[in-house]
Amino acid sequence: MVFAVVRAGGRQEKVEVGSVVTMNRVVADDNGKVTLPAVMLVDGDTVTTDAEKLAKVTVSAEVLEDLRGPKIRIQKYKNKTGYKKRIGHRQELTRVKITDIK
């Protein structure tokens, strides 16, 4: 069983071929492909964490869709001053499917 831990949009995700991952928005090339940098590679009993060997490892992914996350509401309030503030945020996300680990 081969899987890798990749750096995906500010976080690390454990992926294997065929898995679908939702990460922060990434820009794909013209064909809708993305290459993710590997942090760790597990190939059976062999675990690779050496930076020089991981530079040769490529994790390819195909962009399935761009979407937005759930709305997060932020509220600020200060007692006895009449200060109230409410803002919202929706994170830009990308859903990708891992196609190859070399």
TrEMBL record:
Q: Which GO terms describe its cellular component?
A: ribosome
Key words of the record: Ribonucleoprotein, Ribosomal protein, RNA-binding, rRNA-binding
Whether Membrane counts among this entry's keywords is: no
UniProt lists the family membership as follows:
Belongs to the bacterial ribosomal protein bL21 family.
Subunit text: Part of the 50S ribosomal subunit. Contacts protein L20.
Function of the molecule: This protein binds to 23S rRNA in the presence of protein L20.
In its UniProt entry, what is this protein called? Large ribosomal subunit protein bL21
Q: Which organism is it from?
A: Gulosibacter bifidus
